[in-house]
Structures are given as C-alpha cells and as structure tokens.
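Structure tokens please, single chain.
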Amino acid sequence: MSTESDTTWRRPSVYITDMVPNGIYDRGHKPEPMKFEGFTKYLTHHDDHTTSKGPKRKKQKQASALRIMSELGSESNAHGLAKIATSVTTKRKVLWSLLVIIGFTAATMQLSLLVSKFLAYQVVEVSQMKEGMPVEFPSVTLCNIATISLTKVNELIIRNETDIMSWFTFIKNAKFGEHTDRMDSHQAFYENLPEVGKAIGHSIDNFVISCRFNTKPCSSANFTLYFDGKNYYNCFTFNSGYDEVKKEPKEQKLLMHTTGPQNGLSVILSLENDNPPAGAYGLYDVKNHIAFSGGVRAQVHAPNTMPSPADHGFDVPPGYSTSVGLKAVLHARLPNPHGNCTYNHLEGDRSYRNTIFSCLQLCKQRILVHWCGCKTAALPMYKETDPKKQNLPFCGAIKNWRNTEAYLNKSRVDIDTLKCEEDLLNNLNNDRSYENKCNCFQPCDETSYQKSISLSYWPLEFYQLDALRNLYQNNTITSSLIKEVREKMDNLQSRFDQYLLENRREEYNQTDLDTLIRASTVVRQNLIRLNIYLEDLSVVEFKQMPAYELADLFADIGGTLGLWMGISVLTIMELVELLIRVTMLLFDSESSTVNSSLDVGDTKESQSMLNINHDNSISNKYNHFQYDKPFFHQPIARTAESPI
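Here you go.
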C-alpha cells in the first residue's frame, strides 16, 4: 500500500489533437491544450464592450452587408451580376463589370426613348362598321339663293312704307371709292336697314309649299328660322334639334329605321321668282361667286349645330328633282392628354353643339369687335352682338345716310370702321396664327354625313297643270308669275275640255303653244323637288385610340431590361429583398448597441462564477474532463465550443 506522498493523484490535462484535412488523427503532431471558446467568450465579453466595440461592430456590419450582397448577387437572375459575384479571378470580374455597365447604359437610353414615346400620347384612328342600330336623321338647312323676295319688295314699294328706294338713291349718287362693291351688296343693305332686310326675306309659308317626312306630312312648324345677314337672309332648318320654347336642345332625337326616298324628307320648294318693278335691274357683283343664280342652297349637318350654308352647302337647281342619299359617319376623338377635343357647347345667338368651323367664325367676330369696335353681318353673332340689343353698330353702317344731300358734295364717303373690318378679315383669312388664341378644338363626338347627289328632269310638261292644282290647292299663290301661268293653263284646259264634250278634235294653235312654253318655263324656273334620305343604315365610326398605352410601355420595359441586362420583375424583387435585409441589419446593429449595457452585468456575473477557486471541492467535482487518454471520437475543430 503506497503512501500518500508517492501516490499523490494528479489531474492529467486533456488535449485536443490536431486533425489532418481528411479528418484522421495524426499522432505525429503535438497535442495542444483544450480551448473552451465558450468560456473565453464570457471572460472577454466585457473587455470587448469597453475597449473596441465601435470599430469591431462597424467592421462586422460592413462584412455582413457585403456577405448579403454577395449572396444575392450569386443567386440573382440578372446574369451579369451573378457572373461578377461568382467570378474568382479579378480579370473576369472586371470584364463582366464592363459588360454590365454597357448593358445598363444601353438599357437606360432605350428606356428613355420608350418613356418619351409614351409621353407623346400618339393616337391611331381605326374604323369599324356599326349595324343593327337606328340612325339619327340630320338637320337640313334650306336657303333661297335669291336673297330677297321680289313679291315683298313690290308690295312695300307700292305701299310706300319703306326706305328701300331712298337707299338705292343714296348708293347710286354717293361715291364710296374702293368700298363701292361692298355698299352695293345685300350685306350693306341689311347692315343699314336691318329690320327691312328681315322683312323682305322669304317666308316659310311661301318657300315650302309641300313637305313629307317618313311617309307622313310635315309643315312649317317643323322648320326653324336661321338668318344669314350676308348671303341669304332668311334660311329654314328642318329638325334643328333645338326647342325654341324651352330654349334648350331637344331630348328626343329623330331616329330612322328604314332607307330610301319614300322614308326620308321630301319637300317641294317655290323660289318666288316674280317680275321686278318696271325699269329695275339688279346689281351684279363679279366678286360674289355664289349669288345671282336661281335655286336653293342646302346644307346637311348634325342636329343642333350652327348652319353654314355658304361654306358647307350645295346648290339645288330649279326644274329638277334632286335626290340626296346620306350615309352617317361618326367621329370619336380622345380628350387630353391624347388629344385636345372638347365637350363644350358654343354660345352664339343661342347654344349650339361645338364644331371647329363655327367656333373659329365666332372667334373672328370677337376679334373684330375688340379691334374695330363694331360687328359684321358676314360672321355669326353671339350674345353680345345680338342685333336686338343694338349695343354694337355694324362696321358697314353709315350714320345719317338718309340725309343724302350731306354726302353728295363729298368727293368720297369715308367709312373708317368698314376699312378696319376689311383689312382685319383679310389678315385673318391669310394668317391662321389667330387660331391659337381662340381655344377652338374639335368635338369629342361628332356626326357627319356623306352625300351622293343625283338629278332628274322635273316636272314633265304633261303633269305641270295638275301639279300646280295639287300644290296650291291650300296655299295662296303669292308669285304673280305662277298665278299668271296657272290662269292661262286653266283657261286652255277648259277650252279643250269643252271640245271633248262637243266631240270636236282641235289642235293647239301658235298662241296656245306659246302659252304652254311660257307656262312650262315659269313652272320649271320656280319649282324644286328635293328628296333627302338615308341610303344605308350601316354607320361607319372613325375612332381614335391610344397608339402606345401603359401596358405597351411595361411590356417594352420588360423586353428592354431582359435584352440588355437579363432583368425581370423577380430580379427587382431580389433588389427589394436586398434593401430590406440591409435595412434590417442596420436597425439590428443599432438595437444591439443600445442594449449592450444590459449585457455587461450578465457578463460580470458569469465571470465571477467562473473565477471561483478551481481547487475547491466544487471545482473538482465537475472537472470530469481531465483524463490522460486520447480523444478518438468524431473529429472536432481546433477551437472547440464549450458544452457549458
């Protein structure tokens, strides 16, 4: 039995052996003492916080951020970024970096072009055929090309209730220089005698002697007066689309479900040609290209739009049956930002639906009022220039013209406002820059009508007498010429009816033939038949559509990014993930810094527990790792983690 002195038990040290790369224990290496990294962490934690926590945490944060970016870069769908992240050599990294920069530059340039194309808001116009729907019948404006009614002029002269002869005497004797042609016109007559001008215009009862629409009779109540102070005076519009009683557009539209002349508008018009006063002749103006002819000026336009027969109408000659076949065309335009169409109405003498032409005409009138302080009958009126208010004079009006003697001694009658009007309108007609200040735009929804016109000889001589009897059976014949030929033809027919009763066979003599020729000429010079109808219920719609929409922009952006950089929406989500993780890393680091003081107390407590004397019984009790035998279990790292 050995003594305690020579048999003293010593605690052997436990060593961690070096491991070769293949994980097999190498007995040739000298074992190193075991390092409990867990204990070391607790023993040095307090010193790290007190001495080098700032720089160390900053480096750790940077390393973590780089690690996150490297990880996402290697996994990214953007091929260039993945190549940069996974490349081992520097040359390969530089090469792929240059390629990524070139691709990014090209993609940026192409994307800027795509955005510019989108912001241009270009449009394309497509056409489509609409069928199986009723078509709105248009407005039809009719004007007698002969501005004044000679029948009414004769009546006024006979009653001596007008200044017509005084005006003719004045313009005949006064000298107007370069304004002579203008003062001889119907426009000058109206501007100086506005009430007389309206009175001598044609009336609807004498103008329209027969009317039928859609196989049903119509009357003068279906027509609305429109006054043209320059060319035609009294014009009449069928289906104007405006309620004169309520002073607002009509809610009920005139819709058509059938085609053909029998189902449209058919009117027989009388031109009221009459014998002029004895020795009187009209004044012909070679500069006027639409007047001094016989017939009717007709215009087909959308309901509740301002008529402009002189600019957009067509002539209908007397002595013929004129057929006008219509086909509706719809225009649908885009408002801002793709276009500049408008839904606004025009405020003329009343409210009209907007058309670009009428808006510009009203704008010219406003410019004239602004610069010359007067208005003109050649342009449509608006509320401030309403002749009934008499607030503004006409530019061609001559003060005290009835005092003819005051102007006879003058070598020339100067009209400054008339000169201002002519110069200004001439400039506006030759320079369209004024349109930029008018704020006139195309309507967003507009209806127009394509026309096909045909004519036939009408009425045949064989039917003329019976035509006069039917047309004027309920109407008083105001034209002396029509009344004259009607009486002569009735007398001639009565005489031959008597021959038939007496069973006598007679032939026309020369006087009878002259009477028939004269009657046929007068009838055909005074009567017109006009048929306006829909020849097709199919409606052609021209519709504007965006040429490059937002969906197209997104598709092209995706194609551009995929072509140059291999980027898709999922790649963008990867970038979002990177930003989120870096942000979380930043906030996590700040939170750890704030709470670091709480860890110091725990560290001291742990250190005090570990600083207990290792020679006492407690330390010896738990020091069961100290054995002098090799450790042949699974290979462990050089720095072992403490099991505590």
